[in-house]
Amino acid sequence: MHTKEVGKNTFLIDLETGGFKNLIASYVLTGKQAVIVETGPASSIPNLLSGLNELRIQPEDVAYIALTHVHVDHSGGVGTVLKKLPNAKVIVHAKGAPYLVNPAKLWAATKEVLVEVAEMFGEPEPVPQERIIVAKEGFTFDVGEGVTLKAVEAPGHASHNLSYYEILNEGVFPGDAAGAYISNCNVVYPTTPPPFRPDIALVSLGKLINLNPKVLYYSHFGKADNAVQRLQNYMTQIKLWTNIAAEGVKKGETSQAIRERIFREDETIAKVIPALKANAVHRRTLIENSTRGFIEFARNPQI
Question: Which of these, 111, 114, 197, 213, lies nearest to 161 by C-alpha position?
Answer without folding.
Answer: 197
